[in-house]
């Protein structure tokens, strides 16, 4: 979930409004508001301010809210598949048994690991040269993470503030899913001019891309498709606590 998504959801709940009510007042779809709250849709400052004004927020800064406002849990008991009890094993001659504490620890550990592997994935956090520097546990839904194979997903640690005009700051974590062709209007992890970073892309024609960034000022560079390598699409932005 993103900073903006947290703020919109927190203020909407504080005003006792539903996503449908906010969407109707803003002239957008309910799914649009829910995607912004979930952090899967990245929007510009003007649209963000319009949504917040619609909810009733006039003045607030990022320092006025924290991720503690939103809590997420994974109930392993709910998602762990149930397996039938094994048939009784034939009696064998007695043999030496491991200490009771060791047996209990082994069984408990096995069940816990099996449950974790079915619902959570230890997703790597990559730096600017795509070397792993950390990991984060991410829920797996129907065998996928954000629609992608879990082993193809990673977090990219944003190295600078070149995208802060799009509410992406240095140190934030962008969840990247596979995408090797430019997607119009998407924020993507790209490589060009010897550097890797997040950029917002706009297709000008079949051969040309507008590569956009926004630090203190908006900047855009027109490049040939052959000059840009797409490494993946940013589907969610999280910030480091």
SSE run? HHHHHHEEEEEEEEE
The separation of the N and C termini measures: 13 Å
Total strands: the figure is: 9
Task: Report the sheet with the most strands, covering strand number, pairing sense and barrel closure.
Answer: 9 strands, mixed
CATH class group of the largest domain = Mainly Beta
CATH topology of the largest domain: Umud Fragment, subunit A
The name of the CATH superfamily of the largest domain reads Umud Fragment, subunit A
In DSSP terms, counting alpha (H) and pi (I) runs of 4 or more, how many helices? 6
How many discrete structural domains? 2
Cα gyration radius (Å): 23 Å
Examine the secondary-structure arrangement and name the CATH architecture of the largest domain.
Ribbon
Side by side, the strands of the main sheet go: 2-1-3-4-9-5-6-7-8
Note poorly predicted spans. 59-84, 101-115
Class of secondary structure makeup: alpha+beta
Shape: globular
pLDDT averaged over residues: 78
β-strand amount: 25-35%
Q: Helical proportion?
A: 25-40%
Give the structure's gist in a few sentences:
The chain is an alpha+beta fold and 241 residues long.
Walk me through this protein's architecture:
The protein folds into 2 domains: 3-69, 434 Repressor (Amino-terminal Domain); 122-238, Umud Fragment, subunit A (Ribbon), CATH 2.10.109.10. The chain is built from 6 helices and 9 strands. It has helices at 3-14, 19-26, 30-38, 45-55, 76-79, 100-119; strands at residues 120-126, 132-139, 154-157, 173-177, 187-192, 195-203, 208-214, 218-224, 229-238. Strand 5 and strand 6 (195-203) form a beta hairpin.
